[in-house]
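Page 47, continued from p. 46.
Same chain as before, 320 aa.
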Amino acid sequence: MRIGFITDANVARLDWARDHGFRSIGWNRFETSGAAPEVKEWRGFAEEFAGTAKQRGIRISSIGALYKNPLDPEQSEYARSVFLRAIDVAAHIGVTTVSGFPGAIIELEKHPKGNNPIYKPFENFLPRLVEFWKPLARTAAERGVRIAFEHCPMGPYHLPIMGYNMLAQPAMWERLFNESKRENLGIEWDASHLMCQFIDPVANIHKFGSRIFHVHAKDAFINRQLLEVYGICHPGVAEHRFPGFGQANWAEIIHALLRAGYESDLNIEGWHDPVLRDHDAILPADIQLAGANRQSGQKLENEGLILARRHLEQWVPGGM
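Result:
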C-alpha cells in the first residue's frame, strides 16, 4: 500500500510527488490526455508516461477514465469509447484498475400532490445499468483489468438527491454485483461520501472489502451544531476535507482495508478542503459560513496534500 494523490498525466506533478514523498498516483482526466480515444498513436504516450512515473518510483494505481454520465444517451457512445481505450491502456502499461462514474438513467415523473418533477427510482433502471457495463466488464476481464465505480452522489449537500450516480448508495452496489455476476466490477471507495450519508466507513469495508479496488483518500466533517439546528440539507452541515482534518478514523479504515485484502494504494483527492486549497479571489461556496475570505489568494493545495500524507503514513505498514 502506497500513499499518493489524484492528478492528470502531468510530468511536473510526478516530479513534485517524488520530491515530497509520494509513491503513487491515480491518473485522472484520462479523456483529455494523449491516450484519449481520438488519439491514434496512443501507445507511445502511455508508455512514456508510465515509464516516467516508474523512473521516479511512482506507481499508477488506477486510470480514471471518465467522471460524467455514461448512461445519458447523448454521452453513452463516447463514454464507451473512453472506457474501452482506458482498458487497452491499462492492460498495455500494467495497471490493473480503470475507474469512473457508472452513470444514471434520469427520467422524471410528476408528484401527484405537488405536480413537481421528481426522479424515478434508480432501482427501476438496474437492467440498463447492467446492460451497459457487463460487456465492458467482460472485455476488461479478458485483458486482466478491473472496473471500479466511484460512489460520489453528485447531488446537493453531498447527498444522493437529484444526482447522476446510480451507485451513490451501497444497497445499489449489492444489486449491481448480484445482477451482473462480474467479479471484476467493484468500487472506487471514498470515506467522505459515506460519512456525508451517516454511513460508517469501517462497517462498510467489513461488508464490501473484497469489492474495493481503488481508494480515494478524502475525509469529511459533519457540523453537528448546524445539523441539529437546520438539518442535513443545509450549506456547511457536511463538507469534504483532507485526511486528518475531518472525522474519519484512518487507523481503523486502513486496518480494515488491509484485513479485507486490499492490495492497492491510498490516493488523496484534493481540491475540496475549504481551507487547504488554492484560493481564488471569489469566495468558495463551501466556506461562506466563515463570513469573509481570509484565505483569498493563498495557494494551500500542495500543503494540504503533504499534511494528509503525513497523517495517513502513521497507519501504513512500512514494509508494504
